[in-house]
């Protein structure tokens, strides 16, 4: 199947549009958070629950998406997913309060959790192996355009219209997508029924929700310390119970044998710790630029393009770098650089020239992109057959969970510093600066994890995942 044929396939365009909607929504929101806080009567330093709700919902549902698509068919599930994403967008745009907005983001997250995995599954079934890589490359292009447009478009909409439009713009595209999905998604592709580990799914979901809500509650989001402690204990107990359940279940969500693969084990843990910082940065940077430095939403969104450009530039050299130096050396050194880049953003001040801030953001984008490329590849490189599909789903879940936890931790740290210094003039900027330094130091923990890789590991062809 040649390139011209690929580009004319409506199925690929449909999945690509869904991918674009997700990546655009993920990057357009952060720039609008300060304006949303002002409109809803909330502190801009305590808006992390809007991001956490979506990421946590997505992480929680990813393990079930494959089974649901097999059971009900890709056309039906993809259509429902896109419809839920549109419904969530409408509810977000109409939100009268932060609590309503958070619940609307949960609805959006249910749709988002199914859209990309089910779309990718439909493409996998529709194309032979030799055409699949070309098809997925075509789909990935809009996913790179979304982050490029998101920050600037979000800033422009907030400044010249209102924050509600960052959600309204999803509606016409999504409605067309629903109609197209019903027309072009494969029909009657349900697979033979297989058992679903409902008990394991419930335990894993409760564990992720409990731990994430406990971390979010540390920011003072209406929860007392006793409730935070209870949620944390029950969350950890649920995760432990899932592990014991998986050891004796004939069909667990994720087979414990997967963790016998060293590269997967180290890669997943490294992803978790590294993304505590890299997941928090997109939430913190717009706050720093708008709340700390007083920039307009459009100006702040334009400056964030430096991060996207740095990321796109490094994507081209990431594989060659790892081929030359090996996974272990690259990830150890790059994890240190990532922590330092995040901490250095805490040095940003109103007296600093904007070109220097742009340089910092560009450098962060470069280092962050190298980290994603290397640690995603090392996580999946030794998987094959059935373990590849399961490992890929597990990695996707960990990525979203880590982003949720990173934003929740950053919000808790930010709230703590803000409470400590609120009597001082300029306390918001001080709290943001201290939070960047703290999150940067925490990110350094990933270096300890990646030091467990074998020193002679080098790049071999491996599937990559989107970030």
Number of DSSP helical runs: 20
Kindly state the mean pLDDT as a whole number?
Answer: 83
Total domain count: 3
| Helix-strand sequence | HHHHHHHHHHHHHHHHHHHH
Rg (C-alpha, Å): 21 Å
Task: State the CATH superfamily name of the largest domain.
Answer: MFS general substrate transporter like domains
Subcellular location: Cell membrane
Transmembrane segments: 12-33, 45-65, 77-96, 102-123, 135-157, 163-184, 196-215, 227-245, 266-285, 297-318, 330-349, 394-418, 430-450
Domain Major facilitator superfamily (MFS) profile: 11-458
Keywords: Cell membrane, Membrane, Transmembrane, Transmembrane helix, Transport
Question: Could you characterize the architecture of this molecule?
Answer:
This protein has three domains: about 1-195, MFS general substrate transporter like domains (Growth Hormone, Chain: A, Up-down Bundle), CATH 1.20.1250; about 195-250; about 260-465, Growth Hormone, Chain: A (Up-down Bundle). The chain is mostly helical and about 475 residues long. Mean pLDDT is about 85; it is low at about 1-10 and about 455-465. It has 20 helices and no strands. The two termini are about 25 Å apart.
